[in-house]
Amino acid sequence: MKYSQLDPFPEGFLWSGSTSAYQVEGATLEDGKGPSVVDLRTQFPEGTSDYKVASDHYHRFREDVALFGEMGLKAYRFSVSWSRVIPDGDGEVNPQGIEFYRNLIGELRSKGIEPIVTLYHFDLPAALHERGGWSNRETIDAFERYARILFEEFGGEVKYWLGINEQNMMILHGDAIGTSGEDHDDSDPHKDLYQQNHHMMLAQARAFNALHEMLPEAKIGPAPNIAIVYAATSKPEDMLAADSYNAIRNWLYLDMAVHGRYNSTAWAYLRAHGWEPKMEDGDLELLASAKADYVAFNYYSSMTVQADHRSMTETKSSAGDQQLGASDPGVQEPADNPNLEKTAFGWEIDTVGFRITFRQIWERYHLPLLVTENGLGAPDTLEADGSVHDGYRIDYLRSHIHAMQEAITDGVEVMGYSPWSAIDLISTHSGVTKRYGFIYVDRDEFDLRTLDRFKKDSFYWYQRVIEANGLPD
Ligand code: BG6
After folding, report:
1. Cβ of residue 374 lying under 6 Å from some atom of ligand 1
2. Is 418 in the pocket of ligand 1 (CB under 6 A)?
3. The predicted structure's pLDDT at residue 184
4. Rounded Cα–Cα distance for residues 235 and 241 (Å)
5. CA 197 to CA 253: how far, in whole Å?
6. Helix, strand, or coil here: 45?
7. Positions of the region Disordered (predicted)?
8. Which residues contact 17 (CB under 8 A, 6 or more apart)?
9. Using CA atoms, how far apart are residues 248 and 267, in angstroms rounded to an integer?
10. Could you tell me the pTM of the whole model?
11. Quick one: which H or E segment has residue 208?
12. Whose Cα sits closest to atom 15 in ligand 1?
């Protein structure tokens, strides 16, 4: 469907920008913060740095928020570091951690920027990880307590909340992202992973219910990574593979967060492998009782698969990263999509897939949609005069915003757009060389240089988008 005219973006549309605590803050063990699973990492892909200083946002947040204000952001999506607030995950609260986020939220509010707060973005407290992490049901209690503390402390100032960021990627690509820990048992990790998945779903359900009980005016939703899955050909078995992988990668997580039940195709996949999670009395009731107010999702690209003709009992090979997919015996194997260009880091660029993803999510769930990540990772260059010419990022964002407007014209209710990332930060596994921000941070992998901030061309361009409440002419 190619419209001659597109509907405008709604009034009050949340033009936003995203970050996550461990990727931007630095100060990993400062002012009482405990280590998280990310700080336990000793190995990083060659040539990439750790997260100790990151973008030094912890010390420079006032300057950063001033820049966000200048850019015109209506909202800012960030995550709270669980181990900054509760250093060991379930013990004493760290007052300096609370103070940091109180100051950050206050600073945002003073610039008229709506905070959108993610409870948990990959950085499980190390102390909980050492006690079994998400394999241990006690982590569910710890998460609910942590969520309640945040609702209590910040509920007066924060209306929009997100549960768990990319739970699906932690399950499918935890090794690439660095959330599985380096000491896990590789014999058959999947049974345990799907047990962890079940526990995370219960934890998120408890957080949804706690928010609705404590702050009836506030809103919360899940934030998985959704990549619509295409079939490599029109062969029925390839279509079936795409349908199965859509269920395993995407709908399992949203069906649970919205309808409070396991997706049937994904459940059949778990049963066929013997990976169904152990449940306790009351689990299914709890899951069914929790309600999402909106669906937030991260979108970088679509995915293309073809049928895998092996038996499902063969061993699954190790996965690629979030957008590169994995081959799954008896289900699907990833295929290149020859119709799509790729970023410098090999991720396909698919704006039409963005529109299809909107439509599919909307038709399945009929809840308002909030894009919590979308963006282009690229190695930017800081020029001698302090400019950064990232026209490629503008092209990426422009075409995705256009596709989003087409989806709005298709009838999809979209409440906001929060590109990744508001400011440069450290990628999950490609260091700071893979930059996403509107604001350049002067550092490279191992040389921290000045850490000064510079406005990229995309900064000025996004400023005009926000001013115009849509793409400028
Ligand atoms: C998402 C994550 O997977 O994609 C972010 O929620 C991440 O934390 C982003 O940074 C981009 O991925 P990457 O691997 O390029 O950092």
Report:
1. no
2. no
3. 59
4. 10
5. 9
6. coil
7. 311-339
8. 68, 71, 73, 76, 77, 418, 419, 421, 422, 423, 438
9. 9
10. 0.97
11. helix 189-214
12. 427
Note the pLDDT tens digit of each residue in 26-55: 999 999 999 999 998 888 888 999 999 999
- Report the complex ipTM: 0.99
CA dist 355 and 26 (Å) reads: 35
List residues with catalytic annotation. 373
Per-residue model confidence (pLDDT) at position 445? 96
Ligand 1 atom at shortest distance from the alpha carbon of 300? 4
CA of 164 to the centre of ligand 1 (A): 14
What is 14-468's CATH number? 3.20.20.80
| Ligand 1 neighbourhood includes 427 CB (under 6 angstroms) | yes
297 lines ligand 1 (CB under 6 A): no
- pLDDT computed for residue 321 by the predictor: 81
Ligand 1 center to 2 CA (angstroms) = 31
SS3 label, residue 71: helix
Decide whether any atom of ligand 1 lies within 6 Å of the 51 Cβ: no
pLDDT, tens digit, 9 for 90 and up, residues 4-26: 999 999 999 999 999 999 999 99
Give 185: exposed, middle or buried? Use CB within 10 Å, 0-12, 13-18, 19+.
Answer: exposed
